[in-house]
Every structure is written in structure tokens, then in C-alpha cells.
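Shipment paperwork, digital attachment
Item: protein structure file
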Amino acid sequence: MPTSDKPDQKLSAEERFYAAFKRLKLNLPQVLPKGTPVSQNNVAKEAGCDPSALRKTRFPLLVLAIQEWVEAHKSEQPSERQRLLKQRRKNRDTKEIIADLKQQRDRAVALLADADLRIVELSEKVADMQTRLDQLQPSASILNLSK
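Attachment content:
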């Protein structure tokens, strides 16, 4: 890895890429947010260059070192993108569960409302029939008078 006491603007492109690679490995980036995973594109961005500037044809040893480091540290922790995708899936699953529970609640409320209406209708019918029964049955006082 080339080193230099020159200020950053005087460093060669390769030196800037190596410095950026080192900062990303140590999780001490200066350009990108902390926690940015090491990748060929992120090394170029951290060096202040366009990602297409870090080409395997121009910097084969550096690109190889980056690829080896990424491969060796792949299982340590998922990338930020993978973590976000996992969180989105979890959120989507949670949202689907909530939507399903809301549908179940709405169906239960509808059934309850139907049952309440049916109870009111049947109660009214029972009251009407009780009134008719009372009208048709002779009262006890009438029976006693006829004896």
C-alpha cells in the first residue's frame, strides 16, 4: 500500500484509493457515512472519485485486494442494503398481518351487527306474539265469573 506525506490533493489516484480502502476497512470514512460497507464502488466514492475510475485494468492489485477483503469479511455482517431489505420484508410482513387482522376484525364486527339486528327483530317478534297470546287467552277473572 503506497504511503505518502503529501496532502490528499497531491496524492496519486492509486494512493487516494488505497487510503480510502484503509479508512473503509477501519470504519473511519471521511466522505461516506460511517458503517458504509467496503466495496469497489465505495472505495472510489470515499476517494472522491467516480466509481468507474477504479478499474481492474488500471489498478489490478488494489481491485484484487478489495475483492479478497470483501470475500473474507462477507459473513461478518450483512451490508446496509441487505439489512434494509430485511427490515422492509419484516415491516411488510407486519403490515400484512395488521391488514389481515383488520379484515378479521371488520368481519367479526359485521357478524356482530347482523346478530344484534337479528336479536332485536326476534325480540320484537316475541313481544308481538306475547301480546297476541295475552289477547287470545281468557283472563283468570273471566273464568271465575262464568262459574
